[in-house]
Amino acid sequence: MKRLKELAKKNYSVKMADSVIAKFPELTDKWQYDYGVVFKGMEYIYENTSDEKYFEYIKKNIDSFVDENGNIKKYSKDEYNIDHINNGKAILFLYRKTGEEKYKKAAQLLRDQLKTHPRTVEGGFWHKKIYPHQMWLDGIYMGSPFYAEYATLIGKDEAEEIFDDVAKQVILCAKHTKDPVTGLHFHGWDESRQQKWANKITGCSPNFWGRALGWFAMAIVDVLDFLPQDHQSRETILAIFRQLIDAVLKYQDPETGVWYQVVNFIGRNGNYPEASASCMFAYALAKGIEKGYLDSSYIKALERAYEGIIYRFVEEDENGLLNLNGVCMVAGLGGNPYRDGSYEYYISEPIKTNDLKGVGAFLKASAWIERLFK
Fold first, then answer.
1. Which residues are catalytic?
2. Which of 55, 143, 291, 295 holds its CA 20 to 30 A away from the CA of 343?
3. Given this model, what pLDDT does residue 127 score?
4. Cα 18 from Cα 42, distance rounded (Å)
5. Which has the closest alpha carbon to 43: 86, 100, 85, 107?
6. pLDDT at residue 374, as a whole number
7. 15 burial via Cβ count (<10 Å: 0-12, 13-18, 19+)
8. Which key words tag this protein in UniProt (predicted)?
9. Is the pTM of this model over 0.85?
């Protein structure tokens, strides 16, 4: 724990946040989910430091999309893309801080998407309209924490209905994607079993992609912020979280302390330590420990993970700004060209420096590790 405390004192969250502001002053070109991961990290750093520049960074960028009537530029509800809900977390943050009506209206617009978003037979949100009958681990992070937080800001009757729906999303996704052998969760599940990547019996995709598992871990620990203490499914969701963390820890690389792109194939030819998944697991561990969902025995794994992240992926450039190396740029299932979910597919996607999905996860992890020692 001593080494973790020393790293926490170095305030990597602030250094990386300042580097992001310098390198990416405007995240305004598209309404895309990775910006929302960065904004969430900035929100935590603002709470830690009370430095207004982090608040202003979120506000300036979100205000480029949200007009005075609460319309969101470059967003289309009719696409029914669950990824497009993620930036709503920043909108809710701004509404809580400012009370401005435009943010409430914009949040309601995203809530309206979920009212009519297509679902599986049991009621799980499809990942996208263009990916019918499918739930992906990623989608739980994109939709559920926003949905749960939104419920805390509205009337009791609708809130109860939403909390039940949020719990249903997590539980359904966990049930259908969990591998009984490893305890890990497959990236996606197709209830129709029509996709070429889908197992004809289970409907699951064939591999355990690190970042998908990371999205799922972050989603659950974030949903628990808002799900009422007395909700009938809270203990079930806590159990899913603990089981997921225990399964993931079995595949923490003993040498580096981080996780590989395809989690269960450490050292296999072509596989590599991947930064975004490692940061997401570190965040889930740090927040889980801080909130009391995980006991202090997990600190050792967190220490090894964060040390590995700092020494393996983080570097300082000639201007004193931080970079995050080793981030898988993107991975998905299906589409065109077709992504088959094979091992070979996951290791073939480009690896990038400062991909914002990884950077945002690093901000979140660092902010919560620093909270552990406040």
1. 138
2. 143
3. 98
4. 10
5. 86
6. 84
7. middle
8. Hydrolase
9. yes
Distance of CA 42 to the CA centre of its chain: 14
pLDDT < 70: residue spans in the chain: none
Amino acid at 344: E
The closest of 370, 303, 359 to 20, measured between CA atoms, is: 359
3 state DSSP class of 318: coil
Task: Give the pLDDT of residue 261.
Answer: 98
pLDDT tens by residue, 16-64: 999 999 999 999 999 999 999 999 999 999 999 999 999 999 999 999 9
Nearest residue to 89 via CA among 78, 101, 77, 97: 97
Which amino acid makes up residue 68? Answer: E
* Domain count along the chain: 1
- Angle (deg, nearest 10), helices 52-63 and 88-98: 120
- The answer to whether residues 283 and 361 touch, using CB atoms and an 8 Å cutoff, is yes
pLDDT digit string (tens) for 291-340?
Answer: 999 999 999 999 999 999 999 999 999 999 999 999 999 999 999 999 99
Q: Are strands 134-136 and 188-190 parallel, antiparallel or unpaired?
A: antiparallel
Q: Supply the CATH number for residue 237's domain.
A: 1.50.10.10
Please report the beta strands in the chain, taking only residues with DSSP state E, as ranges in sequence order: 134-136, 188-190, 314-316, 322-324, 327-328, 351-352
Tokens of 26: 């405007």
Q: What residue numbers bound the domain in which 222 lies?
A: 1-372
The pLDDT of residue 156 is 84
- Inter-CA distances, 121 with 2, 80, 130, 191, Å: 50, 17, 17, 8
